[in-house]
Amino acid sequence: MKRLLRKLREFFKDDRAGPLVEEGLIIGLSILAIAILVTVILGILGWAGDSISSLMETIANLLPF
User: Fold this and answer.
1) Rounded to an integer, what distance in angstroms lies between the CA atom of residue 65 and that of residue 24?
2) Longest dimension (CA), the chain
3) How much is the pTM?
């Protein structure tokens, strides 16, 4: 039992993986930020495309052709 507790204590005191965890979190947050940015850009482009299509339809309806 003492040996198990000693191993657990050593495991929790070991901080060699700290930088790896930090880099993993930074990479994860970066991917999330890029995904949000791409979603916003695609939403804006979709809105702009719909607006231009609507404008072209309105202009086409106004012309006497």
Assistant:
1) 61
2) 93
3) 0.61
Q: CA-to-CA distance for 49 and 57, rounded, in angstroms?
A: 12
3-state DSSP assignment of residue 7: helix
Instruction: For residues 40 and 27, give the distance between their C-alpha atoms in angstroms, rounded to a whole number.
Output: 20
Query: In angstroms, how far is the first alpha carbon of the chain from the final one?
Result: 92
- What is the per-residue pLDDT across 2-19, written as a single tens digit (0 to 9) for each? 888 888 888 777 777 778
Name the burial class of residue 8, with classes exposed (0-12), middle (13-18) and buried (19+) by CB atoms within 10 angstroms of its CB: exposed
Amino acid at 60: A
How is residue 14 written in tokens? 């070991």
* Residues 22-42 pLDDT 10s: 899 999 999 999 999 999 999
